Amino acid sequence: MEEISVKAYGKVNLCLDVLGVLPNGYHEVSMIMQTVDLYDVVTVKKSAEPGIRVTCDKGDVPEGPENLAYRAADALLWEAGIDPALDIHIQKNIPVAAGMAGGSTDCAAVLDAVNILFDLKRSRKALQRIGVKLGADVPYCLMGGTALSEGIGEILSTLPEPPKCVVVLAKPDLHISTKYVYDHLDLSVVTHPPVKAMLEDLEKGDLTGLCSHMGNVLESVTGPEHPEVGKIEEIMKNEGALQAVMSGSGPTVFGIFEDAGKAEKAKESILASGLSKEVFVSRFTTPERN
Ligand code: ATP
């Protein structure tokens, strides 16, 4: 095999809690992760020319070693003792710097692709051990679906999928640094979302309960600084969303709808408000590799 294309799916956090800061400075998290049906297409191609080259069809994505896709190929081939000679192309559909794990999912896709292309036969666990050094969300992106993520993101448990629903994703035109958000998080004032209650909702298949328990402690930093986040949530709720919250460190807001027509109408209202140009009507999904 000379070339392979892999779908790299984005995620949202149905629940995102931060429990504390570990002695090594990393944050201990408790998050319920969910893959959405919005994906980049990552193509990895063997080349006669030594080195790794990354290209992307979207301008605001780095094309050199700062790209997580580059670092994934470099790390896995180095570990396998193979001199890299690869071209990687990313067709970017997931909003960038959005709280949807766009870089981490491309990183996971390249680990999968290189593993197959070079017939390395690394287990998912082995890829996750390499991936966690590149980004806290990478181990989750290597599995996808619905999962509880604990520790610094490396302790993962598969959960039942939420009941069928429609999801509207809207990324306001803001740049938010994940590091800034974590650095400014004050755990003494946040309301911790009820992760345990959501685990029960998932077991019972209770969408209303799940929506009532959604929450994200990072919104305590991003929300007050960027009123666009709260305004988009309001539009979604006014248009019939059962719930709307921010994903990851933001600024993407996602709303859950039972009715596809209301979801489409919410998308139109958000676009008309001028608060976001990147709005998608999507679904929750579990990628095939599970
Ligand atoms: P997370 O949810 O994991 O915090 P994010 O969705 O907030 O991630 P990304 O889309 O991964 O953010 O982008 C964050 C930064 O990472 C970008 O500003 C970009 O410079 C860099 N980056 C590196 N590799 C990629 C990639 N393959 N795709 C997008 N951004 C990348």
Please provide a written account of the structure:
There is one protein chain. The protein is an alpha+beta fold. It folds into 2 domains: about 5-160, 2-Layer Sandwich (Ribosomal Protein S5, domain 2); about 165-280, GHMP kinase, C-terminal domain (Alpha-Beta Plaits), CATH 3.30.70. Helices cover about 35% and strands about 30% of the residues. It has 10 helices and 11 strands. It has helices at about 70-80, 100-115, 125-130, 140-145, 180-185, 195-205, 205-210, 220-225, 225-240, 260-275, and strands at about 5-20, 25-45, 50-55, 85-90, 145-150, 155-160, 165-170, 215, 245, 255, 275-280. The strands form 2 sheets. Strands 1, 2, 3, 4, 5, 6 and 8 form a 7-stranded mixed beta sheet that branches. The chain has a 4-stranded antiparallel beta sheet with strand order 9-10-7-11, covered by helices on one side. Strand 5 and strand 6 (about 155-160) form a beta hairpin. Helix 8 packs across helix 9. It is globular, with a radius of gyration of 19 Å. The model has no long low-confidence stretch (mean pLDDT about 95).
